[in-house]
Amino acid sequence: QVPLVESGGGLVQTGGSLRLSCVVDSDIFSISVMRWYRQAPGKRREWVATVNADGSTSYDDSVRGRFAISRDGAKRTVYLQMNSLEFEDTAVYYCYASSPFPRFGRGTQVTVSS
Question: Which residue in 81, 86, 77 sits closest to 67, CA to CA?
C-alpha cells in the first residue's frame, strides 16, 4: 500500500476559498502524474485538475480560472487552491497518483453553502 492522505476540506460560504492538500507516501512522487477528482452526491466521479511531473497543469472548464493545482516535491504534496467557490463545487474531493501504480485517496469533503 502506498497511501495518499487528503486534508483541507470543510464548510465554506459561496465565494470563499479552501486549500486541499494530498501527501503522498512514495519515494517516486517526482515522476508521478497527480490529479484531483471530485464526486458530488448522486453523480459520477469527475476529473478536476492535473499537474504533471514537469509542473504543467490542466483544468476542467468548470474550475479553470478559479482553482489552481500545484506540487511540492520536497514535501511530496500536491495542493488544490480553490477560490470563488460555488455551491456546485460541493463534493468529496479525491487525490489521484499515477505512480508507482494508479490509486486514489479516501477523499475530503468540501461543502459550499449558498
Answer: 81
Q: Where are the beta strands (DSSP E) in 1-114?
A: 4-7, 10-13, 18-24, 34-39, 46-51, 57-59, 67-72, 77-82, 91-97, 103-104, 108-113
Residue 25's pLDDT is: 84
Report how far residue 114's alpha carbon sits from residue 107's, in angstroms, rounded to the nearest whole number: 22
- Number of other CB atoms surrounding residue 15 within 10 Å: 10
- The pairing of strands 10-13 and 108-113 is parallel
At 59-87, the pLDDT tens digits run 999 999 999 999 999 999 999 999 999 99
Asked if 82 and 70 touch (Cβ cutoff 8 Å), the reply is: no
For residue 43, count other CB atoms closer than 10 A to its CB.
Answer: 9
- Spans of the chain, pLDDT less than 50: none
pLDDT at 96: 96
